[in-house]
Design brief:
The chain has about 260 residues and is of the alpha/beta class. It has eleven helices and eight strands. Bound molecules: S-adenosylmethionine (SAM). The site of S-adenosylmethionine has 21 residues, from helix 8. It holds the Pfam family Methyltransf_24.
Amino acid sequence: MSEISNISKTFFAYLSRPHLYPELARKIYKNIFNRKAAFKGKDDAALWCAKNAISQEKTIAEILGFKNYTKIEELYPEILAEAKSNEKNCPVKMGGAGALDLIFYINEYLKAENAVETGVAYGWSSLAALLSIEKRNGTLYSSDMPYLGKENDQYVGCVVPENLTFNWQLFRFADRESLPKIFKIQDSIDFVHYDSDKSYDGRMWAYPLLFKHLRKGGVLMSDDIGDNAAFMDFCLQNNYESIVVEFDEKYAGFIFKK
Ligand SMILES: C[S@@+](CC[C@H](N)C(=O)[O-])C[C@H]1O[C@@H](n2cnc3c(N)ncnc32)[C@H](O)[C@@H]1O
């Protein structure tokens, strides 16, 4: 499909969703005045990640202290098998799974009751967080807008089984609208997973806000931190110690709030 027809498809998808008009206005502004921001500092970030990275397995065993831990696929084989089948049968292809064991075990370590995530798509990160949070009858607050032009709205979160949805509140707006709504309901968060707007500016807007609402000792985790320098800059500018985790040839990072 040509770029022009892609753009018009996305534009009309926005027009039919008035709750996303604020994001449409921001996208138009960004495409006119700030086109190159998405990959700002990518080379420096990739070097920084490569220098500091440790494996997901080592992070869970040595930093979180779950020696000889069991992968969630073995802990919950039926749920994971059904989730995989739901992904396979989903007619729309969306962004895939991240470091699911790490997400689960950080929530276990924190004994998380309240978590926030940005970016749901199939819902793999939601599933990993909910499997832990549900044990304490806590709540996962998720922010997600659909992939515009893909008409995937009805499939968002399709890998999350129905029984876990009792502990889940999904806000179907852009983060800039969702997050203020979420923080009005719950102001003190144990765990945050960031996996939505991957642009430098999007991250640099969201990270400080998310961090502010973390409780002391809580964790902010972000996916794809090698894509641009936002996570690295956020850590270095604020003197935050971070843990960089390599998995599937990409990087996630997390910070404990001291
Ligand atoms: C990589 S996918 C998330 C994958 C998910 N965490 C998982 O583990 O399955 C990114 C999602 O974020 C959504 N998204 C992108 N920009 C957003 C924004 N500004 N606000 C809210 N959601 C956004 C995308 O439409 C998509 O659904």
